[in-house]
Amino acid sequence: MQMPSITADLLAILALVSAALTLEVVRLRRSGQVIFNGGILLALGLAIACALPLLSRLNWADLVDEASDQAIAAIQLLHAAYIILTL
User: Fold this and answer.
1) Is 28 in contact with 35 (CB distance < 8 Å)?
2) Is the confidence at residue 71, as pLDDT, over 70?
3) pTM score, two decimals?
4) How far apart are CA 34 and CA 37, in angstroms?
5) CA 25, CA 6: separation in Å to the nearest integer?
């Protein structure tokens, strides 16, 4: 699937923001603090606002085709690993 470079860059930034939010929620959950404070909600809102223009430009048919190919490959890899481990 061919994506414009700006779309790939925005997708990478969105993935980094999501990873940072995940780490922050895990840290807050372990320390027993309130999870959804204002800073996390603001960052989540900004990430969603940045993703909306990106999502409208993606070619969804190619994206779904690639995702299904990757899922099938992962299932086949797990099946092969299971067969090898049970020999």
Assistant:
1) yes
2) yes
3) 0.38
4) 6
5) 28
